[in-house]
Amino acid sequence: MKLPDVLIPPPLKKPHKPGTDNGRNGADPLAPVKDAPADLVGWLDERTGGASFLTGMLYRKVPKGTNWFYTLGSATLFAFVVQATTGVFLAMYYDPSPTQAYASVTHLTNDVFLGEFVRGMHKWGASVMIILIYLHMARTFIFGAYKYPRELNWIIGVTLLILTMIMGFTGYLLPFDQRSFWATVVGVNINGTGPFIGPYLSDFLRAGAEFNAATLPRFYAIHMLLVPGLIIALIGAHLYLVVKLGTTAPPWLHPKRTKTTVREERV
User: Fold this and answer.
1) Contact by Cβ (8 Å): 254, 99
2) Over the stretch 131-189, which tens digit does the pLDDT of each residue have?
3) Regarding the domain delimited by 69-249, which CATH topology (the fold level of the hierarchy) does it fall under?
């Protein structure tokens, strides 16, 4: 009597040599470890859809004639990242009170490891960021990148310029020495001479009609929380519009308008 095939056990396979493939047909035993970063990226992309944004950001078309002047925006962004990073470390040791602010800055500069270096990066980085953003705005204006359809991006850039100036102004008071105090008094009084909102703006900055104990915490909150949050949000909108609308070619490379082109445009 012949037994059914289902009851016949399959033939035994030849065992693999030890140390060759770990029983997985030649697969690398470290393959799961090596594939873990790719699997994580795929998991995140499947749930966020960030690959399309990164593709548009990194692989967008660049117009002919692009030069080093086009890197001023990225340089300004890098300067802001440096300011935000160093500012976080400085905030760990800073005490925003009128009686302890100067002492905390002195302790940070003289006693904390690399404190003077980090404070110097933050101090001079503010000037570098302001210079870079002015150069970036000048390049945008000269190259005509503020025209249609990029007017909204130009408005956002001007707002970022104003916020950068506010960041520098509010941060100047934080060491709370004689020079920073009286320079801030002069600056706030100048703001008070502005039409309509000038007096209200000065009262808001001083946290009252005169400089008082709440003025320094007010400047610290604006410098550390309010302005950086607005800058981060506007930078995101700025980059989105750059990716969406593309980059403007230099004006000297625009094609010349012939009579035929003018007729077609009129028609």
Assistant:
1) no
2) 999 999 999 999 999 999 999 999 999 999 999 999 999 999 999 999 999 999 999 99
3) Cytochrome Bc1 Complex; Chain C (1.20.810)
